[in-house]
Amino acid sequence: MAATSSDKLIIFDTTLRDGEQSPGASMTKEEKIRIARQLERLRVDVIEAGFAASSPGDFEAIKAIAGIIKDSTVCSLSRANDRDIARAAEALAPAARKRIHTFIATSPLHMEKKLRMTPEQVLEQAKQAVRFARQFTDDIEFSPEDGSRSDMDFLCRVLETVIAEGATTINFADTVGYGVPELYGNMLKTLRERIPNSDKAVWSVHCHNDLGLAVANSLAGVMIGGARQVECTINGLGERAGNTALEEVVMAVRTRRDHFNLDVGIDTTQIVPTSKLVSQITGFAVQPNKSVVGANAFAHASGIHQDGVLKARDTYEIMRAEDVGWSANKIVLGKLSGRNAFKQRLQELGIHVDSEAEINAAFARFKDLADRKSEIFDEDIMALVADQQQSHEQEHFRFVSLAQHSETGERPVSKVVFSIDGKEAVSEGQGNGPVDATVNAIEAKVASGAELLLFSVNAITTGTQSQGEVTMRLSKAGRIVNGVGADPDIVVASAKAYLSALNKLHSKVEKLNPQL
Ligand code: KIV
Ligand code: ZN
């Protein structure tokens, strides 16, 4: 069924909340601010900036984002209790436009086994939560967690009640990715038909990707169920198998406007830069064949396809690479570029630098890189600034320099100089390869006891001159963190990544998972 008249589809991004719940994707306040600024550039309607009551770090990040973002509504998640809601309201206080998103589980399984509450208690708590939240803002979203496995009669009672209390958005959550498109879409349709005051709220979809159906379910929720808000994340980041990928929903609706007949306010040319930023900050690489944002999404390898595209692009391309922000790797700056050209490029890339002193520091790093690498691409500039902001905010361990020796038949040796709380430390190590030797050298001094879960190297651009971007994922005492480092020397990049991960472990952020 095609939508009859064109209306707007609200894009609600939850990369900073649901996305951050992926093991290892935790972000610092500064990283969240950078992503939030980019989401605003992408023109998302709502940014779910976090779950204020989950940790002081989340609270501070939401508060900072609320004070900075002007064009998107800023939202905080909260469980359905007064303490969480008051904390969300406090964090959102500086926002130009704010939303409180409160939720409680409604499926028999969750109510009985997780909440240990009766359905009547859940109904009452949902009602009181929305009533309490209304004191702080008129923009209230309510989610029945595990909605797609809930009893329809009970759901109708809960949702009618919360709408009557003033909930303005109802988010039908497929928390465990159990839905299949037709059924999920029809459940939503039934709810909207059966609930007498359903027209007083915007209906929203929130789908997880456990069966690889998150995008399909979301679109069925829109087309069959009449949802006009989609909750999604950049690169489909999210709990377990992830959430609905923003870029896929947006490009489906744009490319097949003939079918969906809906408007989205997104600036699609910002999709790829946003994807790259999120991937760089979280260390979650984007698979090459990923729709829209994968490196191969617009690459034609077979001769027949190449020939077709050269004759008429639309023979094999349904979208244009430049419309989603792919730019051919072009040399943007070089050794002779001046500070003004550098500053202008930062602005064009939407990279926010707080002060002239920071621009000077970034420019010094740029000059240093340009001495070692003749062609500087946008990706290099992004990595360089990320590296600077990372070392700026996490001062405990800081990379200084490295000397390394490898020779066929010899065991590699590495000598790493780094500072610990400003005090320089020198440490040596051996290993089965240069990276192993470097990590052993750092560990000889730090003795973190952390377990290395992932070591990955990615060339930022093409050619052997490319900077290597290294991700190190460490785990300790149940916490998983990612460190990222970039340098033309991948051993140096590895040392930076390892120290960055240690810094995150050192920051000891305790965080509550909303769904536990
Ligand atoms: O998946 C889920 O149910 C959620 C809710 C908190 C909306 O993330
Ligand atoms: Zn979720």
From TrEMBL:
Residues 9-272 form the Pyruvate carboxyltransferase domain. Keywords: Amino-acid biosynthesis, Branched-chain amino acid biosynthesis, Cytoplasm, Leucine biosynthesis, Manganese, Metal-binding, Transferase. Its EC number is 2.3.3.13. SUPFAM superfamilies: 2-isopropylmalate synthase LeuA, allosteric (dimerisation) domain, Aldolase. One of its GO terms (cellular component) is cytosol. It is an enzyme of class 2 (transferase). Mn(2+) binds at D18, H206, H208, N243. GO terms for biological process: L-leucine biosynthetic process. Homodimer. This is 2-isopropylmalate synthase. The gene is leuA.
